[in-house]
Amino acid sequence: MSDNILEDMNELMIQRRDKLSELRKEKENAFAEKYKVTHHAAEVESNFAELEEKEVRLAGRLMAIRTHGKASFADLVDMSGKVQLYVKQNNIGEDRYEFFQDLDLGDVVGITGTVFKTNRGQISIRVASFELLTKSLRPLPEKFHGLKDKDIRYRQRYLDLIVNPDVKETFVIRSKIIKEMRRYLEDKGFLEVETPMMHPIAGGATARPFVTHHNALDMDLYLRIAPELYLKKLIVGGFEKVFEINRNFRNEGMSYKHNPEFTTMELYQAQADYHDMMELTENLISYLAAEVLDTQVVEYEETEIDFTAPWDRITMVDAIKKYAKVDFSAIESAEEAYELAASVGVKPEPGLSYGEVINEVFEERVEEKLIQPTFIMDYPIEVSPLAKKMDEDPRFTYRFEAFVYGREIANAFSELNDPEEQKRRFEKQVEMREAGDEEAQMMDYDFIRALEYGMPPTGGLGIGIDRLIMFLTNSSSIRDVILFPTMRPESNE
Questions:
Q1: Do 119 and 76 have their domain in common?
Q2: 304 assigned binding-site residue
Q3: What residues does Mg(2+) 1 bind to (predicted)?
Q4: What's the CA gap between 280 and 295, in Å, rounded?
Q5: Residue 17 lies in a domain
Q6: Is 401 annotated to bind ligand?
């Protein structure tokens, strides 16, 4: 902001505080305790025939005031929407009318009045009385330009919600999506559970964790990167279908599709495999789109995305063959894999395995081309330490990821339930960690012990709720669908 704008803002704030001082001198309560509300703005609009010339009581924020001599029109905004107020001196008295004219945009008021329609056909409320409920001490952004600065919008989400109604609608849709997701899973027999947010061992995913310290126990704990291992322990314990919707925390880079804390839905089902998880994923998401948006075809950044089930299915190797024009199924060694990668301009770091090279080629040459919902199946074992290996080719696992518009939104396995094999996989991860890979998983002996009691064949699925909501609300950044995204602290200046 320029110095002149800051000076204007400060002057306006001073004026509002002066008004507050005057109100207090006159014993006028500028911060009321409550106001009895009988209706909301949207009800007045939708039920006009029923409410015409009936008394209503509303509360909301003044977002516009237009004065015409001894009468004024104003816009009152509440959670449901906007309604026009008609405030006339003859109806409320000269003193109260002067008081109304002295109100500022952003002030919260309660009004009592009757519903009517103006000569121009505008549904309005003829105000009989009003109360100042909260004095706003900061001016709102200028209405013709609004609040455009994204940094301010994300930091001051409360202001963003006040002046940008479409932002509020995004979060209403988010709430509906999560509500319907719960309903769908519960109707399918899944039980919602809660597992720890602080873990003694960071596990369940390949990621760098946040570390905290518990003073009473004098031990470090990790904010969870995934609930996976705890949820699978519940399957061992006899639950057959469980799910959890909650936050995960990963100490990684930030981008338009990454926030350090994010919301996921993770579920596990006994006697199921990754094919069952594919069917569940496509049916769940197509249901959410239809139920919340009333369509399964949505527009995202000027591209139509069709979530209608069934979705395309293709193995990782075949996807590379289709989009990058190289065939990894014809080779077996890491050396040959490096040569194939180089032939399409991919240069993996030295020392990677056959499967790790394949995964890098996929990420660099294929992901961005997966626009319509697609299941990429059969991931290399090296990048899937918790997935069951394939009987027909032990280099790969029964795992898939779902992609939309080049971005992963879901990850699922036929879960590894052989405790000895799981221990070997963990040991490999520990070697990688000791070699400097901070994202490699740790050894979890309690999880191995749980598997030794016997986990039935199980399908597991995780869906990134934030990314899914980005697509269903046409939001270009993950920060647009998280109410309070992680930001750098504001400078003192």
A1: yes
A2: no
A3: 401, 408
A4: 19
A5: yes
A6: yes
